[in-house]
Amino acid sequence: MSNLPNCPKCKSEYTYEDGHLIICPECSHEWSLTAQEENDDESRIIKDSNGNVLNDGDTVSVIKDLKVKGSSSVIKIGTKVKNIRLIEGDHDIDCKIDGFGAMQLKSEFVKKI
């Protein structure tokens, strides 16, 4: 039996370890056990192109046409993206776009609705 902690968001006991992260399968919350990384996650603020703070579950709109890498498709300006998830990295928004599927976007190319 594992001694992993319960999820800090939804208190689920069904957490599992993936590399250096602990993941909750019920609410998809990911965190690290080291206090330093937890403090970094809490202080990380992601803003849209207008300077509005973005949160998980927000709805955003694309502010310019974006080419889809590896495809001839383009995500048009004004496309609504619902229920975003904030992640670490260069592309800091994880989402699903109707007609395109799952992808990652940069916060500088979206605005909060």
Describe the structure.
With 113 residues, this protein is mainly beta. The protein has two domains: 1-39, N-terminal domain of TfIIb, CATH 2.20.25.10; 59-112, SH3 Domains (SH3 type barrels, Roll), CATH 2.30.30.40. 8% of the residues lie in helices and 28% in strands. The chain has one helix and eleven strands; from the N terminus they run E-E-E-H-E-E-E-E-E-E-E-E. The chain has one helix spanning 35-43, and strands at 16-18, 21-23, 30-31, 60-62, 66-67, 74-75, 80-81, 85-86, 93-97, 101-105, 110-112. The strands form four sheets. It has a three-stranded antiparallel β-sheet. A three-stranded antiparallel β-sheet has the order 7-4-11, with no helix packed on it. A three-stranded antiparallel β-sheet has the order 8-9-10, with no helix packed on it. Strand 2 and strand 3 (30-31) form a beta hairpin. It is elongated, with a radius of gyration of 16 Å. The model has no long low-confidence stretch (mean pLDDT 87).
List the helices and strands and how they pair.
Elements: E1 16-18, E2 21-23, E3 30-31, H1 35-43, E4 60-62, E5 66-67, E6 74-75, E7 80-81, E8 85-86, E9 93-97, E10 101-105, E11 110-112
Antiparallel strand pairs: 1-2, 2-3, 4-7, 4-11, 5-6, 8-9, 9-10
Domain Protein YjdM N-terminal: 4-32
Protein name: Alkylphosphonate utilization protein
Organism: Paenibacillus paeoniae
